[in-house]
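Tutorial handout. Part one gives the primary structure; part two gives the three-dimensional structure as tokens.
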Amino acid sequence: MDVYTLVGRSGTGKSFHAMNLCKKYNIEAIIDDGLFIYKNTVVEGVSAKRASTKIGAVKTALFMDDEIRDKVAAAIKKKNPKSILVLGTSDGMADRIIERLGLPPLPADSLSRIHIEDITTPEERAAAREQRDRMGKHVIPAPALQLKRSFAGYFMDPLRFFRGKDQGAAAERTVVRPTYSYMGEYFVDEKVITDIISCVARQMPAIGRVVYVVQNSSPEAYELSVSVKVRRGYPLWESAQAFQERLSGVVEDMTAFNVARVDVEVRGIN
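Part two.
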């Protein structure tokens, strides 16, 4: 297995540029902030960007939890990538990750050691730093759909990702705002969800009114139970199904939380 490292200070654009390096050197896998990403798919690990503190994030990125480390190491062994890129804030950190995961060590003078300064301009690093410091934005080199369940409520924009013009799906990256960001924790008041449901109902001619809403929320997802009345002349089953699908998509788009389930009960004709 060929091992590469990409090293740079936090917030200098390592995760964003990792996919470009993978394309350039035909690298199949990435280790970034606790995640093992293989061919644009998150296979194993827990993202450090989900940690509640910066210290916790560092420990996660270094695979200090033996159980998680063992799972990631086993996944790497199973996938057996021909090459892997390890991201770190220093050569020492990258070497420690390599050691913890049982990857082949890199000589100190190896040409496979890449620094962010080698592949970016000062202006690009400054722009990346501003995104991190002022807006709390972090990038994960994987598609949003691969991360959505693990990062419910962490997305700056749940449907926004970057795609290189000539790099296809391999260039997808997702922007998240970690819990330990200075911007604080992210939550959505129950009244907001109720208001969203009411707005969706008003936009659909078949729905007469919302009778009541029951919400069950967790860090992973929402479960909603909605009782409605359907306007006379509209088919009950089709109207309820259309409302269900529309509601699930709108709540996810507007809150960045997963919607695991939406139950719609028709209580009568309006």
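Part three, for discussion. Residues 111 and 171 are 24 Å apart (CA to CA). The domain at 190-269 is CATH 3.30.70.1350 (Alpha-Beta Plaits).
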